[in-house]
Amino acid sequence: MAKRITEQRRRKFTGDFKAKVVMEALKERSTVEELAKKYDLHPTQINTWNREAAAKLATYSNLIIGRGLFEDRIVEMQQLMKLIPEILKRRGK
């Protein structure tokens, strides 16, 4: 009799589920191992999601800071654009 090998598919988790688990891990009321048992996950998966969340947060905060710098550049460009007609007038164009 031949053994039948069943194909196991990877589980897919929603962003909401990942966020819920990461938030619980950040509260530190339970250990990662306890959370892994509670949600039927491997502790490494929770740690990976924690690292991913931290990286996304860092990227998001950099975007916010970068946006502030970008907005400053827009103001500078607007000020320079206002000077163009005066410069052209001085040149006689």
TrEMBL record:
Coiled coil spans: none
Pfam families to which the protein is assigned, alphabetical: HTH_Tnp_1
InterPro entries with a match to the protein in the record = Transposase_8, Trp_repressor/repl_initiator, WH-like_DNA-bd_sf
Q: What is this protein called?
A: Transposase
